[in-house]
Amino acid sequence: MPANGTSEILKSKRSSWNVQISEFARSTRNLIREVVEGVKLEPNPEKPMIPLSIGDPTTFGNLKAAKETIEAVRKSIENRKHDGYGPAVGSEEARRAVAKYSFHQGHVSPNDVILCSGCSTSLDMAICALADRGQNILIPRPGFSLYQTLAVSYGVEVRWYNLLPERQWEIDLEQLESLIDEDTAAVIVNNPNNPCGSVYTREHLKKILDLAEKYYLPIIADEIYEHFTFPGTQHTALSTLSENVPILSCGGLTKRFLVPGWRMGWIIVHDRNNVFAEVRKGLAKLATRSLGPNTIIQASLPVILEKTPQSFFKSTTNFIYRNAVLAYDLLKDVRGIKPIMPNGAMYMMVGIDTDNFPEYPTEMLFVQDLVREQSVFCLPGTCFFYPNYFRIVLTVPEDLLREACIRIADFCENHYKLDKRVIENGGLQAVDLQ
Ligand SMILES: *Cc1c(COP(=O)(O)O)cnc(C)c1O
């Protein structure tokens, strides 16, 4: 017998374990996973597999965190002062350390910093704080797929603005402007960019800010690759150029300090005219959902950010730069594909002239056969909403990268066919298209 009326109602409604997942969970999509699941990965047993797909620089063991970074964490574990909870937005000391480290972004005070569990959580909180169900945010194409994953579960529509490969992946500002309407809550700008490795000039950043100012649009700046630029290229923090546009800059330890698993990121609030007063409160409330990020890493931040030597960062970016040059040189004259030289981050996009590969109507099939014949796996551009390209990761050891590029070149040579239009127009004969 039910003890009271409520459980009687429950009982009468439920007669079996029919547990549904939430709308939130159901609508959460991870494009990279979906696309990779759709590719048949059957490597050639005669060739060892070379994955140029994994965006984790620690995968191959050639890029490791600095000993100063490791030592800082060892100390904060051993002194037993950081086993408890901290404030949800992060400890004062850790936020002060991030503020100091971020002087290149302009004036930053500890109160402008919110610590998060990785830059992904920073982005999640920034989107969640600014955009409501039914609103839209503008995101780059090609671009990091997480923006869509995060926004769509909140019922926030995503609209893609185009990056232009022929202009070093600058934003097509006219097309971006055409997407803005009264429901646009924010623009996400990723600079330096994943997957393109582009780094914007000050002039271009100013134009982006002008547009944001014209429409009173806040910017979420994904600057996780700040400082991660090749020799001769300078990264400019968006905040240093902004007079009136409020910016949430998302960053963290992950890429530059080579510790993706440590999950330490942050949001820096840039808001000269105090238009983000409510947003600050909102972010502080959102931080309470997780009770704050890992206290051991927080406690280590002052030492990590101050003591990790410049030579460590230099050696990482020099290594990636040399790999970028190597891959570019090996691929630039290969018929049917077109690598685009990056200026920073850890990736290079390579265009496929699909007219020259009639066997592969989509880059997904191209990538799949590249695995089957050459055991080289690159992420298809579709993972970044950008078909007819593939992305290679530049963090792999040099000899592996060289071998992979030689195999990619062989693959292209073996499958390259003269463009049908060339044959028709030029009257070339004896070219077998099939
Ligand atoms: C890796 C990456 C992130 C996520 O960083 P985490 O700190 O690991 O969460 C965010 N944005 C871009 C563009 C990235 O490539």
Shape annotation = globular
Could you state the order of secondary-structure elements as H and E? HHHEHHEHEHEEHEHEEEHHHEEHEEEHH
> What's the N-to-C terminus distance?
76 Å
Percent helix, as a range, is: 25-40%
Heteromolecules bound = pyridoxal-5'-phosphate
Q: Characterize the largest beta sheet: strand count, sense, and whether it forms a barrel.
A: 8 strands, mixed
What is the name of the CATH topology of the largest domain? Aspartate Aminotransferase, domain 2
* Strand composition percent: 5-15%
For the biggest β-sheet, the strand order reads 2-9-8-7-6-3-4-5
Number of strands: 14
Structural class: alpha/beta
- Overall average pLDDT: 94
How many helices does DSSP assign?
15
Low-confidence stretches: 427-434
Question: Per CATH, which architecture of the largest domain?
Answer: 3-Layer(aba) Sandwich
Rg measurement, Å: 24 Å
Domains, number = 2
CATH superfamily of the largest domain: Type I PLP-dependent aspartate aminotransferase-like (Major domain)
CATH class category label of the largest domain:
Alpha Beta
Pfam families: Aminotran_1_2
Function: Transaminase involved in tyrosine breakdown. Converts tyrosine to p-hydroxyphenylpyruvate.
Cofactor: pyridoxal 5'-phosphate
EC number: 2.6.1.5
What's the layout of helices and strands?
Layout (H helix, E strand, L loop, with lengths): L4 H9 L9 H4 L4 H8 L11 E2 L15 H12 L13 H10 L11 E4 L1 H13 L5 E6 L4 H8 L3 E8 L5 E2 L1 H7 L4 E7 L11 H13 L4 E4 L24 E6 L12 E6 L6 H11 L7 H13 L2 H22 L5 E4 L6 E6 L10 H12 L1 E2 L1 E2 L8 E5 L4 H18 L4 H7 L8
Parallel strand pairs: 1-12, 3-4, 3-6, 6-7, 7-8
Antiparallel strand pairs: 2-9, 4-5, 8-9, 10-11, 11-14, 13-14
Bound molecules: pyridoxal-5'-phosphate.
The site of pyridoxal-5'-phosphate has 13 residues, from α6.
